[in-house]
Amino acid sequence: MQKIVLRILLLFLVLIPLSPVTNPVAASSYAQQPPPGFYPLAEAAAVTLYRKEYPGGTPDYVLVVNLAQHAALQVLTGKTAADDDSGTEAAFTPQPMDTFWEQFANNQDAFCVIGGPYFPNMPFNDRLGLKSDGVLRRAGASSGESLPALLMLEIWNDAARISPYTETAFQQSTARVVIVGLSPQENRQSQAFISRSLAGVQDRDGDGTYESVLFFASKTTRQADAIEVLRSFGASEILLLADGEAAQINCQGVPYVFAEGRLPAALGIAAGFIADYESTLVRHSEWPVAAEGESVKVEIVVRNNGSQVWQPGEVYLANLRNDWGVGSRLEINTPVAPGQTTVFSFTSQPFERPGVYTSQWAVQREGRNISTRPILVNAVILPEELAARKQELEAQIHEWARQKLENIEELILNWIESQIRRGFDRICPSAALLPGFALLAGWVNSRLSRSQKENGYEKHTFRSR
User: In the chain, what are the helix, strand and coil shares in percent, each to the nearest 5?
Assistant: First the structure.
């Protein structure tokens, strides 16, 4: 009891100067406009904690994490019985939320810790998979298990996604951090006013990439009300992260939503940074498809992710490898303010041979890269025989890209080979056994490898089997 009283006093002392009646934290130019009643309570680069008061009730808190500005998430766990770092077999030892904060506070950018995924007294907690830095921390549920509807939050360096959980999707995810929680369709005492925490993802600029992760926490709220708050902040997809004594949040050492319950796992949120000059890729023609003898049209959209205005002649798109006849750089025509986007577009010279060709670009300022990562454009040039299947391949590539698969080049080459093989099979079911098929495969490979670096093109060839 004494510990609870001390925590309440600490929270009271901290919140007095942060009250909206006195001097609330001013939101930066990068903070989004919150819904009515919410105000910024604490803020650092790329992270903002919002609060809303209710007469006679407890506050709601929403933490907005902007991955595009280098905010980061980390899985925190108690030690295992084996006292090692695998965490895949032994259960995590529960510990107080204060302990998680003390551990995470060693990170100089530490901003918040939030409890979960965990649902007290539920048998499925050990089946809520966790990955951190690509390393399995807790194995996920098997496909044959009877469990509630699960979702997984995948977090890359600059993007996130919430999608249905499957054992295969969890194991094959390329995300740096993967957290498994419950679907909001699950009824977790939905009409009861209890402690809850939820997570959501937001696409602030409508470019198709979820660059913001939102966390909701409250001491007393109904499930539908919590979901509605995240929706009002722009969340498109939502998962349930914790409830009961597990739904806790501590930011900068202040336990805004706390309980005496111990937790096996929590999430640490670190602030990011805003550079003077930085470009982030919004979207681009990553896999344009054409037939041999044709050109490809390329569009690259980038955002000024820094704090300074881009000026024409100072900032430009530079070719780093294989310009496809376009030239060494493309210019901007007007100034680009922080947060604004600009579009570069060009048409390549015709490609004479089928294959997969790669061109590399980067936004530069006075000869120095300011892109967060290289911009790769991979042109897929089909043999004449497959020109009519171009749209089919484009649709397939779009689906592979949506799944964030890493071996798209290999999948494309396999698709092209299979189409050629299928064409032979329609003519003669045993064509693969005939010398003619081997000759065609050799002919394709010879055409593709005849000039592997010709005209500065880098290409990949089809493989005969």
Answer: 25, 35, 45
pLDDT above 90 coverage of the chain, percent: 60
The distance of Cα 332 from the centroid of its chain, to the nearest Å, equals 28
Strands 254-257 and 60-66: unpaired
Distance separating alpha carbons of residues 346 and 333, to the nearest angstrom: 15
Mean of all residue pLDDT scores within the chain: 83
CA distance 379 to 292: 11
CA atoms of 429 and 403, how far apart (whole Å): 33
Q: Which CATH number fits domain 279-460: 3.40.50.10170, 1.10.287.990, 2.60.40.10, 1.10.10.60?
A: 2.60.40.10
**Amino acid, single-letter form, for residue 315:** V
Question: Are the CB atoms for 129 and 170 separated by under 8 Å?
Answer: yes
Q: Are 324 and 348 in contact (CB under 8 A)?
A: yes
CA 237 to chain centre: 13
- Measured in Å, how far apart are the chain's first and last C-alpha atoms? 72
d(CA 307, CA 95): 40
Q: What is the arithmetic mean of pLDDT over 116-140?
A: 90
**353-404 tens-digit pLDDT:** 988 899 999 999 999 999 988 899 999 999 888 888 888 998 988 888 877 7
Question: CB of 155 within 8 A of CB of 72?
Answer: no
Return residue ranges of the chain for CATH 2.60.40.10.
279-460
Using DSSP, state whether 278 is helix, strand or coil.
coil
Distance CA 161, CA 379 (A): 27
Q: How many CA atoms lie within 13 A of 140 on its CB side?
A: 25
Greatest pairwise CA separation for the chain in angstroms: 86
Reply yes or no on whether the pLDDT at 115 is more than 70: yes
CA distance 259 to 247: 8
**The two three-digit tokens of residue 256, written as one number:** 């805004």
Among residues 372, 461, 434, which one has the least CA distance to residue 70? 372
Stretch 306-334: mean pLDDT: 95
